[in-house]
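Many introductory courses stop at the sequence. We go one step further.
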Amino acid sequence: MYVAVKGGERAIDNAHAWLAEERRGDMAIAELSTGQIREQMSLAVNRVMAEGSLYDPDLAALAIKQSRGDLIEAIFLIRAYRTTLPRFGYSEAVETGAMACDRRISATFKDAPGGQVLGPTFDYTHRLLDFKLAADGEVPKAATAAPRMEPTPHITEFLRGEDLIEQEPVADVVPGDLTREPMRFPAGRALRLQSLTRGDEGFILGMAYSTQRGYGRNHAFVGELRIGKVPVEMEIPELGFAIEIGEVELTECETVNQFKGSKTVPPQFTRGYGLVFGQSERKSIAMALVDRALRWEELGEDNLGAAAQDEEFVLSHADNIQATGFLEHIKLPHYVDFQSELELVRKLRREAQELAEHLAAREAAE
């Protein structure tokens, strides 16, 4: 098996060269720059950063270019690069209430305190092909494109003021780091949320959709969806206090879910939560739905046997890099394994044929 792989080194080198040629495409067409990808394919860049667990738009754009637009391959490249980076420490928890919102909507309150900010979204477009883009037409500038700079209160805070939504306890322990330690079950909510934000968008979307169709009893409203930039602070031991080291763009979703209450808890709303790098609306909403479905035990609800309620099933299969590795390894050489299987099948067929001939001879003799 290894001799066969070694003997294919020249073929592998040629495959790499051919891949580079295919990635470049027609030489008569100008090459895409990483700057163009970063600025004009920002949603793809955001997904690569979120699922790659590394906030760096330039590196995400480079990974997309290198991978020929295969986002899972780009995510793999980013994760591999992240493992080479030194870890200096952990930032403080970001305060999303201080977010400079480019977009902030609520499906629960029309006149939401702080106002609705539609922002840049496909939600209100007609989904018709714009042939002006093919003709390199100019795009009209928005009348107002400035983010809302003043602090915007969370919708759930107003529900909490009337005691209509659960009072979530403040964690008194430092959450684990999924990028440093393997997942263990049962996992706490902090690790579940880390896993979901790193998880494959399509898989999380499928799980979320299943809950909406009845597989997990998850009737949710989008209490709030907000997108914008928040400052990141880090405590410097030599100074004894935290300083701002930069800012990141985030998408945050809080869902408001029905809850009938229990023997100790009065009827109230509960919450699902999603937080993702960049503008990632679909992912953050889906994440919030799955988060809420996975909370059935802590809320004293019945397990309906739905896939989205099975913590181990969801978290063990959400990671697209692990899934891709296990899936694609079957196209690598398995000559020895297959030859042993092939010989076994041939032996079984011979034995079956000999038995059939033996029985036929006995019947003829009788």
